[in-house]
Amino acid sequence: MKTYLDNAATTKVDSEVVKAMKPYFEEKYGNASSLHSFGSEAKKALEESRKKIADKINADPSEIIFVSSGTEADNLAITGIAKLKGKGHIITSKIEHPAVLETCKELEKNGFDVTYLNVDKDGFVKDFEKSIKSNTILVSIMHANNEIGTVQDIEKIGKICRSKNIIFHSDCVQSFTKEKIDVKKMSIDLASFSSHKIHGPKGIAALYIKEGIKLKKLMFGGHHEKSIRPGTENIPGIVGFAKAVQIANENDVERIKQMRDKLINGLLKIPDTRLNGDKEKRLCNNISISFRYVEGESMLLYLDEKGIAVSTGSACSSQSLEPSHVLISIGLPHEIAHGTIRYSLSKYTTEKEIEYTIKTTKEVIERLRRISPIKRR
Ligand SMILES: Cc1ncc(COP(=O)(O)O)c(C=O)c1O
């Protein structure tokens, strides 16, 4: 049975999204900057899409900038603010996505002072307020973690930043359409979103920039996207992204949650397993389980042989043999971090697939533990 449980890496594009995009490849293919009717047709689609995305997060359409990926949105937000300010202190956490961590490391090389906050055993940031300095210019804390699914209290962090006049960026790539996001209520200044995580196409994403927040652009060219992000807009991608946002709904979230809990309960019946991340404040579709005495890569390959697609960590780190920085940060010893599998569900996941995954995981674990050189005591 083909069972795709790697939806935190990327998702299937919804057929309604494909349908919405199609005319913008074949008929309405104008450049949104052109003055003729083809151009104005494209421009209209661009602005309608911008509004749909803005509405979802309680923003104004003028506060949405389209970019190519969540990675680009993170880079533009963090580097854009840092470059404008010139110097200062930045606060982030040790469990951010590499799009944030590597950007911060690069800024450190350029003289910025960066604090990487520790997290507790469930993945919540610690000592945030204590880490603020008189020269703190920016805080970047993700809404939901891509590996362990923990959902941070972004509103609390946002309020503290706002009261101290510090710019607050949140990577909302994993939480978008799964958790409620209200940029005003949450006091967010900048937020990153990506289409391919929510059944939209790849290669399109958005950065929310609160009215009045200034940043330095990273690319130079024409006057697209308020001159912040030049380059001809990807209209089919933008239309598809907006359609994906429009059709996302709470019923799907509830249904996915129920399947998530069924899978968690089934997997935790296997001896010597643990769930990573918070039990309650976690993404509706995330399950991160550590299986003792087995090795994640072998599990992944055996499960793949049975048609089940999972991940051992984030897609970016799954190529390397280093244990995941997120799992190490929540205090897992290396050998347990190495035996960790992330199952991530979607609205297309079925009850049958959940049952098949529980049964198959049990069989794979038993088989691997029989041949494992690391024996149970
Ligand atoms: C939390 C988080 N931020 C950023 C990204 C990067 O997004 P994109 O794949 O659109 O570059 C990802 C992708 O895995 C993610 O999970």
Could you describe the 3D structure shown?
There is one protein chain. By secondary structure, the protein is an alpha/beta fold. The chain has helices at 15-21, 23-26, 37-56, 70-85, 98-109, 128-131, 154-163, 235-247, 250-268, 296-305, 325-329, 334-337, 351-371, and strands at 3-4, 64-67, 89-93, 113-117, 136-140, 167-171, 190-194, 205-209, 273-276, 286-291, 308-309, 340-344. The protein is built from 13 helices and 12 strands. The strands form 3 sheets. The chain has a 7-stranded mixed β-sheet, with helices on both faces. A 3-stranded antiparallel β-sheet has the order 9-10-12. The longest helix is centred in the C-terminal third of the chain and has 21 residues, at 351-371. It starts with a strand and ends in a 6-residue tail after the last helix. It binds pyridoxal-5'-phosphate (PLP). Pyridoxal-5'-phosphate is lined by residues 69-71, 74, 97, 99, 142, 146, 171, 173-174, 194, 205, 314.
How is this structure best summarized?
This protein has 377 residues and is of the alpha/beta class. It has helices at 15-21, 23-26, 37-56, 70-85, 98-109, 128-131, 154-163, 235-247, 250-268, 296-305, 325-329, 334-337, 351-371, and strands spanning 3-4, 64-67, 89-93, 113-117, 136-140, 167-171, 190-194, 205-209, 273-276, 286-291, 308-309, 340-344. It contains 13 helices and 12 strands.
